[in-house]
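Supplementary Methods S3. Complex input for the pyridoxal-5'-phosphate-bound model.
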Amino acid sequence: MQDKLTLMIPGPTPVPERVLKALGKHPIGHRSQEFQQIVKRTTELLKWLHQTNGDVLTITGSGTAAMEAAIINTLSQGDKVICGENGKFGERWVKVAKAYGLDVTTIKEDWGKPLDPEKFKSILDKDDEIRAVIITHSETSTGIINDLKAISRHVKAHRNAIIIADCVTSLGACNVPMDEWGIDVIASGSQKGYMMPPGLSFVAMNENAWEASKRSNLPKFYLDLQSYKKSIDKDSNPFTPSVNLYFALEESLSMMKDEGLSSIFNRHKRHMNATQEAMKSMGLDLFAKDGFGSPAITSVEPTGLDAETIRKTVKVNFDILLAGGQDHLKGKIFRIGHLGFVNDRDIITAVAAIESALDQLNELKKPLGTGVATATKILNKQSN
Ligand SMILES: *Cc1c(COP(=O)(O)O)cnc(C)c1O
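Predicted complex, serialized as structure tokens:
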């Protein structure tokens, strides 16, 4: 059977019918009044999602465009920065920062472990000249959630540094109160918690970030956020944005607004708990350190088994796409995305498919049905 694919990877994520329909509309002029109204409404909703009174700018480009924009708009050649690195996306921050000639100190942890906020504090305490701390909130490659709140608090105690966070798989999955936590810059992308196809990304900037942008001397043109800021104040864009993705954005953000932030966060938490416990009950180990599992993604380390074989069996038998491990984790872990447009049925189905695949491979260590029973109990107990 064709066209029955279920995405359970951490992006692209499933897209609701309402959002797909919006994409199929005929484009309209991007300088029309009608479009400016859409820009106005989506900008308000984006601020709501980020829990900020600052600016949230929309870029046509993937999440990495937002990451690059965050750096080149707030920093200057040779600036000292600290990058947290405990996975693939932390590595990406380091690469972008180095590509622009920043003086990078990395604070590393083994993949699967969270960043240690105290290490940030001790470097910040010793060095007045650090201009930015740059971290990944939910490290998608390992399924770890880093303690953004604690790290941000240490940055706030420093005189000169701002904090820049990749919240691509945390925004719309768990609480990221930008203003309350004092996050200066947040990068995110449409194909994750936003329940949209890839193609738009977002950079949120507060006052400190705009202050920093005045000093910034790194080269920029398409991603010069000053021009996005000038345009957004007139409900417009500096260039031709992806008009149809804007239609989709308005639909998806409206759906999120209707559901409400606390319901969205609670749903992701239940799905994380159900997925984690179901895997453990089947005798599979979790890769992320206890208590630091991401609400968006669960990484499973099926010790002694080839993770790719399990992942492929699930794909072939059930047309459910799970993510594999990246780099040295290839074959060691598989990852279950439960981010965005995901309901209880998706979780139960994914757990059942993994359980069935293990059974077929003669690798199921517990009675058939154990994983599904565990997930079901948790979903029933922890109500919506
Ligand atoms: C998906 C993702 C990105 C963005 O990647 P793009 O492919 O450029 O959209 C950045 N950071 C994290 C943590 C991600 O999961």
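The chain has a mean pLDDT of 97. The radius of gyration is 21 Å.
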